[in-house]
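Here's a chain:
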Amino acid sequence: MVNLFEKLNLHSYRLRKFKNKFFYILCLICVIIAIVPLLSILFEVIVRGAPAINLQFLTGKGLRGGIGPAIQGTMILIGLTGAIGIPIGVLTGVYLAEYGTNKYASWIRSINNILTGFPSIIVGITAYSLIVVGLIGGFSPIAGAVALSFILIPIVARTTEESLKLVSNSVREASMALGIHRWRTIISVVLPSAKGGLITGILLGVARIAGETAPILLTIMGSSFFFGGFNESMDALPLRIFINSQLHTQAAQTQAWGAALVLILIVLTLNIGVRLASRGRYHNKVTR
């Protein structure tokens, strides 16, 4: 009888070990399958784009000069869009997570889910009809930022809501038990606890809008000159990549690959910079 139990336990142990190893290998294969295309794209962009990178290319303008206006325009668009979309997205996520038990929150959540998967070309057409034609009367960075905000807001709102939901209710209850108002608890306790998720959501949204082409094609149109005002056409890296990729000259193709590499480096730098800044602030608070 004892030998039978030992055999059953040994069999169960071997079966669990086999399942563990099988799913570990399966997950590893899936990771490799996901990483290989990414590495292939990065390798292609680096090989084709790196030879074009030089000071004249980064600061000059025009097809033979460089992509200076496009870099400047991308940074302006990211800044304007972030100023519009990040506060609205974070506040929406806070409302849905902390007060989202009524029918209004359900409607907002449904609209947010729809906007998350909305085609960007539709956003661009809508912004063109309502803002470029209806309100401003011309192409401008403001129209581009508003269009990109409709892409950024749902991403930030969704990730903010999910991040705040991960914060334990006991943290909220402990804070309010000390007599702290709910709004103060959210600002001083809940949001700092979910800081990592909030930053991740914001960076994902910024990375998404930095590479969008359709909305800015219909709102800022493009330009070969540096920033001339908020009521003038402006260039941007995704737009420059798209336009140059349609040309069949070697100079245009090289500039397109170089602009793609610069765009990747900008997004990567923003991600690393924000991560390091947030960790530095947290470390300073802890040491104090």
Residues 159 and 271 are 16 Å apart (CA to CA). The longest helix spans residues 2-49. The chain is about 80% helix and 0% strand. The two ends are 64 Å apart (CA to CA).
